C-alpha cells in the first residue's frame, strides 16, 4: 500500500535522480565528527620544535628533532613535565599521566603526536 | 639499608614518578583556577618554588610523607569543573558522534528503484 502511494506521488512529481555513487568506502570516516585528518609529519616536527624553542629555560640553538630534554638540553624532570603540558596545549591533546611520564625527548613526543588519531 | 640496593633505587624511582605526576596534576589545576595567563604564570612559579625547595631531601621515609602531604593538599585544591579537552572522557564532545558500524551506507536512489 505504501509503494502504491509512493508511485502515485512520484507519477506527479519530478524528482531528479542523483548520481548514485556508492560511498561505502569512505562513508565510515566521513560521518565522524573529528579525527579524520592525520597531521603531516613535517608539520608536527615544526610545531613541536617551535614549542620547545619558546620555552624560557631552553637554548634555542641546541634544539633538533632528536634532542633529549634532560640529557641534551640540561632540563629538570619538572621542566619535562612543563614541556609536555605545553605540547598538550599546542595540539589540543589529552595525554594520560602514565604516557606523559614516558615522554622524555623530542623524538618520543613527535612519534606520540603523529600516531595520535585526534591531534589537531 | 645500603644506598645501592635495587629495591632502594626502585623505590626512589617510584617516588620520582609520583612527584612528576603530582606536579603535572597540580599545574593543570593551577591552570584551571587561574585562567588568565599572567596570573597563571605567577602561580605556576610559586608552585615550582615549592617543589624546588624540597628537591634535595634524601631520607626515603621523609620523602614518602612529603608526597602524601602534597597529594592531600592537591586533593583539597582540586577544581570542581576542570577544563577537559572536548573529545576526552569527561569532555563535552566525548562519544558525541561515534563512528557508525561497518556496513551502513547511504542509499541515494531510495524510492526510485522501480523506475530504473
UniProtKB/TrEMBL annotation, chain A:
Record's GO cellular component terms:
mitochondrion
The record's keywords, sorted A to Z, are: Electron transport, Fatty acid biosynthesis, Fatty acid metabolism, Lipid biosynthesis, Lipid metabolism, Mitochondrion, Phosphopantetheine, Phosphoprotein, Respiratory chain, Transport
Q: In which pathway does it act?
A: Lipid metabolism; fatty acid biosynthesis
Cell division in keyword set: no
Q: List, alphabetically, the HAMAP family matched.
A: Acyl_carrier
Into which family does the record put it? Belongs to the acyl carrier protein (ACP) family.
Q: What is this protein called?
A: Acyl carrier protein
Amino acid at each position: 500500500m505504501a509503494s502504491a502511494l509512493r508511485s502515485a506521488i512520484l507519477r506527479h512529481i519530478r524528482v531528479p535522480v542523483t548520481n548514485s555513487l556508492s560511498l561505502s568506502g569512505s562513508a565510515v570516516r566521513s560521518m565522524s565528527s573529528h579525527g579524520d585528518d592525520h597531521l603531516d609529519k613535517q608539520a608536527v616536527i615544526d610545531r613541536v620544535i617551535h614549542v620547545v624553542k619558546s620555552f624560557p629555560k631552553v637554548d634555542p640553538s641546541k634544539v633538533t628533532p632528536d634532542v633529549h630534554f634532560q640529557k641534551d638540553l640540561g632540563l629538570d624532570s619538572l621542566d619535562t613535565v612543563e614541556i609536555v603540558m605545553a605540547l598538550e596545549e599546542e595540539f589540543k591533546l589529552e595525554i594520560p599521566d602514565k604516557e606523559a611520564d614516558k615522554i622524555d625527548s623530542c623524538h618520543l613526543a613527535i612519534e606520540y603526536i603523529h600516531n595520535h588519531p585526534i591531534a589537531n | 639499608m645500603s644506598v645501592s640496593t635495587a629495591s632502594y633505587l626502585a623505590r626512589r624511582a617510584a617516588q620520582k614518578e609520583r612527584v612528576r605526576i603530582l606536579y603535572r596534576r597540580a599545574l593543570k589545576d593551577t591552570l584551571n583556577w587561574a585562567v588568565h595567563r599572567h596570573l597563571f604564570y605567577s602561580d605556576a612559579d610559586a608552585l615550582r618554588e615549592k617543589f624546588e625547595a624540597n628537591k634535595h631531601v634524601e631520607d626515603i621515609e621523609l620523602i614518602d610523607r612529603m608526597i602524601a602531604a602534597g597529594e592531600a593538599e592537591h586533593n583539597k585544591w582540586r577544581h570542581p569543573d576542570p577544563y577537559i579537552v572536548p573529545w576526552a572522557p569527561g569532555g563535552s564532545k566525548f562519544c558525541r558522534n561515534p563512528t557508525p558500524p561497518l556496513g551502513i551506507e547511504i542509499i541515494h536512489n531510495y524510492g526510485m528503484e522501480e523506475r530504473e
